């Protein structure tokens, strides 16, 4: 067994005992010989517990193995242990990413994201996060569901709505949705408050004219 592997095993045993300072020492020693060792980084992040350094350690592990769900899971637990708006915003992205990586129920991830949005109660912040995910998402069905989530967030959160409904639907076009997807937008009307409906239909009329 290599020295690095021995050190990681010792770190894992120390974590089980609750001896986190020893675990940190063992992980740091392992990383001296293999600075990009994914497992040592994840163990170090766990050993650091709520220390701010744990966040950057987990992110470094994710950079090394972006398709490995373990570091994501540990980072989610770290953020969930904090009660800050920055951690909540990061969780919105992580819940969605993990639903794609691990095959977990996407609906559960979207529900968690919606719950965070209601807690933050700021459409500009949450809407920007969801819109970025829409732009990055290649799967048309997933993208449709994100658009629906964005409409719900607009309707049920407050704050300064610098992005109104018309702008939201214009952004749907800007993300290069197919016409089938754009013309499916009326499904979103079920989430709109009465004062938004007129704006919605004005936009829908515009895209019909544009298509013709």
Attribute tags:
212 residues, mainly alpha, Serine Threonine Protein Phosphatase 5, Tetratricopeptide repeat, 12 helices
Task: Explain how this protein is built.
Residues 179-184 have low confidence and may be disordered. The protein has 2 domains: 1-82, Serine Threonine Protein Phosphatase 5, Tetratricopeptide repeat, CATH 1.25.40; 86-212. The protein is mostly helical and 212 residues long. The protein is 75% helix and 0% strand. The chain contains 12 helices and no strands.
| Tally of DSSP β-strands | 0
| Approximate helicity band | over 70%
Query: What fraction of the residues are assigned to beta strands by DSSP?
Result: under 5%
- Judged by helices, strands and strand pairing, the structural class is mainly alpha
Radius of gyration: 22 Å
Tell me the overall shape: elongated
Report the sheet with the most strands, covering strand number, pairing sense and barrel closure. none
* Ends apart, CA distance between termini: 70 Å
The arrangement of helices and strands along the chain is HHHHHHHHHHHH
Write the layout of secondary structure elements.
Blueprint (H helix, E strand, L loop, with lengths): L2 H15 L2 H14 L4 H11 L4 H12 L4 H12 L4 H18 L3 H15 L2 H14 L3 H17 L8 H10 L4 H4 L11 H18 L1
Q: How would you concisely characterize the structure shown here?
A:
With 212 residues, the protein is mostly helical. It has helices at residues 3-17, 20-33, 38-48, 53-64, 69-80, 85-102, 106-120, 123-136, 140-156, 165-174, 179-182, 194-211. It contains twelve helices and no strands.
């Amino acid at each position: 067994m290599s020295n690095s592997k021995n050190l990681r095993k010792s770190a894992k045993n120390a974590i089980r005992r609750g001896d986190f300072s020893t675990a940190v020492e063992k992980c740091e020693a392992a990383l001296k010989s293999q600075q990009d060792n994914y497992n040592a980084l994840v163990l170090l992040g766990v050993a650091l517990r709520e220390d701010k350094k744990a966040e950057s350690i987990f992110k470094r592990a994710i950079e090394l193995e972006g398709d490995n769900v373990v570091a994501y899971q540990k980072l989610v637990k770290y953020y969930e242990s904090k009660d800050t708006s920055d951690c909540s915003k990061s969780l919105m992205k992580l819940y969605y990413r993990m639903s794609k990586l691990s095959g977990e129920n996407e609906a559960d991830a979207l529900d968690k994201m919606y719950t965070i949005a209601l807690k933050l109660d700021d459409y500009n912040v949450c809407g920007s996060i969801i819109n970025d995910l829409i732009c990055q998402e290649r799967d048309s069905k997933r993208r449709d569901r994100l658009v629906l989530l964005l409409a719900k967030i607009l309707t049920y959160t407050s704050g300064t709505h610098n992005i109104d409904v018309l702008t939201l639907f214009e952004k749907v076009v800007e993300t290069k949705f197919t016409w089938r997807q754009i013309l499916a937008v009326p499904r979103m009307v079920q989430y709109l408050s009465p004062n938004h409906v007129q704006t919605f239909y004005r936009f829908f009329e515009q895209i019909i004219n544009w298509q013709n």
